[in-house]
Automatic annotation (TrEMBL):
Region (Disordered): 36-62
First and last residue of the signal peptide: 1-26
Name of the protein this chain belongs to: CHRD domain-containing protein
Composition bias type Polar residues, residue spans: 36-47
Keywords: Signal
PROSITE patterns assigned: PROKAR_LIPOPROTEIN
Length: 177
């Protein structure tokens, strides 16, 4: 019955490929093997274009943010820093301590940027000196590899800056006695 290719007279009669195929198969007929898989061509900007899946873009979690975090380790397989958001709670014997942020208690992972700034207060670099600014954040420069090595053996409290691509571009260790 349908020995020829289906011809559609104009844009007003344009049907989706699925509707045409459904109609043909429901009537008990089959299309010839040389029939195109998309016999109904829609003009650009049509409803079919709007329904077409768009490329998936990754959702950024912390772009252009400053975070206070407990750095929990480094995932060598994914090349990402594991961390948990924390907040400073006043009081106690050390005049404050860090606890997990109750608004976001989960663990997160982000990669380091290509050239992150890493600043140690006492333990990231092996200088054994305490070097901090007026906010208690580290001032001794370290290499990214020193950060990664330090995170393999212990956790570290730090202030992080995350760039617009969701990469950690600054790590400043937080000093606490």
């Amino acid at each position: 019955m349908f020995a020829q290719r289906l011809r559609i007279p104009g844009p007003a009669a344009v049907l989706s490929a699925g509707a045409v195929l459904f109609g043909v198969l429901a009537s008990g007929c089959s299309l010839p093997t040389d029939a195109p898989t998309n016999s109904a061509v829609q003009p650009s900007g049509s409803a079919q274009d709007a329904a077409a899946p768009s490329p998936v873009t990754p959702q950024l979690r912390f772009p252009n943010k400053d975070l206070t975090a407990n750095l929990l380790g480094y995932d060598d397989n994914a090349h990402m820093v594991r961390f948990q958001l924390v907040r400073n709670v006043a009081g106690g014997p050390d005049d404050g301590h860090y606890e997990t942020d109750p608004g976001d208690p989960g663990q997160h992972r982000l990669p380091l940027s290509a050239a992150p700034v890493v600043l140690s207060a006492a333990s990231l670099c092996s200088t054994h000196d305490v070097t901090v600014d007026e906010h208690g954040t580290g001032t001794t420069p370290c290499t990214p590899q020193q950060l990664i090595d330090a995170l393999r053996g212990r956790s570290v409290y730090a202030r992080l800056h995350v760039d617009g691509a969701d990469h950690i571009d600054r790590v400043s260790e937080l000093y606490h006695p």
